[in-house]
Write a structure and sequence with these properties.
- The protein has one domain: Lipocalin.
- Helices cover 12% and strands 55% of the residues.
- The chain contains two helices and eleven strands.
- A hairpin with a 2-residue loop joins β7 and β8.
């Protein structure tokens, strides 16, 4: 009787359609969007955001997926408190009025089952513009420390901050901002 029930369960599960996509939650302890910008021609200044949340859906076999990311703009970190306070203010991020930076995409581009780029909408300083991220590293597998299925990636792009209404000190402080995002997300 037990063998019949087990065989029936196996047979019935074979007739069900397979779940096509997997859902992931961004691991905020391993996800830090960062930026670099030319400062007066003297140096490249760098910083990052320490609080990022979001959800990702991936189906590499079907070359589809979606991304919804939210960055706490006030979590900016540069290593210099005075600079961070200035960047949070009205001259730059204006976090009192625009507390979140978001990225939303339903267009993930795969080469076979490897994610290579993402087209989406970046909302920064209350302005939304299309952005393409280039993915130069993508890997999914078992995280042997957390014992959870995890996907990770590194993505880069360059934006013009004036496109998002942030123009203070341009051109002395560059208009072009290079962005790098290292991200990890765990399967739900």
């Amino acid at each position: 009787m037990k063998k019949s029930v087990l065989a029936l369960m196996i047979m019935s599960s074979l007739s069900l359609p397979a779940v096509a996509s997997d859902n992931y939650t961004v691991d905020s302890r391993h996800t830090f969007p960062s930026f670099e910008i030319n400062h007066l021609g003297f140096s490249i200044q760098r910083g990052r955001f320490n609080k990022t949340t979001g959800n990702i859906t991936l189906d590499p076999r079907a070359s589809t997926g979606s991304i919804q990311i939210s960055i706490d703009a006030a979590s900016i970190s540069t290593g210099l408190t005075d600079l961070e306070d200035h960047l949070r203010g009205k001259d730059f991020l204006d976090v009192a009025q625009f507390p979140q930076i978001t990225f939303i995409s339903n267009q993930l581009i795969f080469n076979n089952d490897r994610l290579v780029s993402v087209n989406g909408d970046l909302t920064l300083h209350g302005i939304t513009k299309p952005v393409q991220l280039t993915v130069d590293h993508f890997h999914c597998g078992m995280n042997l420390i957390a014992m959870k299925n995890t996907c990770g990636a590194n993505a880069t792009t360059t934006i013009k901050r004036t496109d998002f209404g942030v123009s203070k000190y341009v051109p002395a402080v560059a208009d072009d901002v290079n962005i790098a995002i290292q991200i990890e997300a765990t399967k739900n």
